[in-house]
Amino acid sequence: MKVLGINAIFHDPAAALVIDGEIVAAAEEERFSRRKHGKRPVPFSAWELPEQSARWCLEHAGLEPADLDAVGYSFDPALARPAAEQGLHDPWDHLRLTYAEAAPRFIATALPGLHRDRVDYVAHHVAHGASAGLAAPFAGCDVLVLDGRGESASHLAGRYDESGVLKTLVTQELPHSIGLLYEDVTEYLGFLRSSDEYKVMALAAYGRPRYLDAVREAVYAVPDGGFRTEPVDWAVYAPARRAGQDWTEEHADLAASVQRRLEEVLVELASWLRAQTGGTRLAMAGGVALNCVANTVVAREAGYDELWVQPAAGDAGTALGAALHLARALGDSVRPMPGADLGRAWSDDELEAVLRSARLPYERPADVAETVAEALAADGIVAWFQGRSEYGPRALGHRSLLAHPGRAANLDRLNAVKGRERFRPVAPMVLAERAAEVFSRGPVPSPYMLFTHDVAPAWRDRVPAAVHVDGTARIQTVERATEPLVARLLDAFERRTGLPVVINTSLNTAGRPMVDSPRDALECFGSAPVDLLALGPFVVRRPEVR
């Protein structure tokens, strides 16, 4: 079966293709349109489809729209209710339902040759659940989904059996939503809601959870496996912060209090689920599952032996989940996610043609890993563009900015290059076999940067740029078998510096999507103070200023 998945209704529009149960391609629309998150999550944008990413998925597989057996759309309007009935204040929410009801016609128009009868609705949280439970590296597992909202709920807890059939045990109806609560505090703290929630997580490390008891009264689990989120007057605890305004101790303490309560409630929800199923393995998805600090607490305290989190856990991942769900329903035996590198790639000849067209001086060293390691050891910042682009919000060694971890100033330096807040941490890459030496108290392997780890005391002064203010790091472990080029780079860097870690952050600047194409890479290199661009096997050096 050839099944295309589409996410479009809220934010992060994306497309994914599954053929005969195998995940072939997946990409977010922002990588093509160059609009961060693809669009803003307002009702007026619900009609916008991931047309470019859907067409690319088909082109990548050599398919035409008429070749598709099914298209899954990750929202089912039949399950939705008017916003006012759900306790939501959104007078234009009815537009979402109107657009969702018309989605089969819209998709058939965007993909000529596709008959609209082949478009099926997949419930939003079922799509999230399938992106985790059916893509996980194990068959048969519990699944926990938490986000802002779906059709009429914000949470799903259930179990996939060995054959891939989902049994839903509980859902939490709106207006109660941990995701929306976190969005609210994100906006109150001066960040962009449905976009900058990770900034609240980062800011929380600078604060103390002084208001935790009060937040506990408003956010709590209930015995049936759900939870309640009561309205919170944030002004009691901290003044509203405007975008660009300096943050204060009160802001950090509020962030810390909400973050800590999120962790506590997630552990309670996961523990309830485990008690119902007796399961030993848990898969998670939904935007809340991008909170790597909370994921680590769940992994440590909820009692599961294994926890796997979908790397595109936000709404973009529902495109993949919708495709996997329909593929399974149509009789295919679906296979685990092979990795996050599911996007576009260019051949060496194509990359060289781009460089020639740009009229840039470049070279092709004997081993780009050695050349980049030399630049990093000399404290250069490197733009790293290799292989297929990543699906999801994390740069995982394919579209990355790299730097030396042993220079404490490189944290501020990278944040300045990217034009982002100084309190934001950057992430270290480390070979999987070396991870336990440098990092502890976190799941290993951790190939998708979805958990935090304590930096071992003996290493904190050696890799200061990798250490967040609370002594942790959000690591990416690298397997030699799946990432041989990055592994060679890490080996080459350690030979020169004695450090088995390289700093990795996404190849983009503030407010811009992650670099996807060679042209994007050249534009970013040309506009940011980066010392060297590694574009496939080629390198472009920053000219010396005379």
TrEMBL record:
Per its UniProt record, what Pfam families does this chain match? Answer: Carbam_trans_C, Carbam_trans_N
Carbamoyltransferase domain span: 2-70, 116-324
Entry protein name: Carbamoyltransferase
- Ranges for the Carbamoyltransferase C-terminal domain? 373-542
Alphabetical UniProt keywords: Transferase
Top-level lineage group: Bacteria
Q: From the record, give the transmembrane residue ranges.
A: none
Which InterPro entries is this protein grouped with? Answer: ATPase_NBD, Carbam_trans_C, Carbam_trans_C_sf, Carbtransf_dom, DHBP_synth_RibB-like_a/b_dom, NodU/CmcH_Carbamoyltrnsfr
Q: Name one GO molecular function term.
A: transferase activity
Which family, according to the similarity comment? Belongs to the NodU/CmcH family.
Tell me the organism.
Jiangella rhizosphaerae
Keyword Transferase on entry:
yes
Entry annotated with the keyword Transferase? yes
Ranked from the top, the taxonomy reads:
Bacteria, Bacillati, Actinomycetota, Actinomycetes, Jiangellales
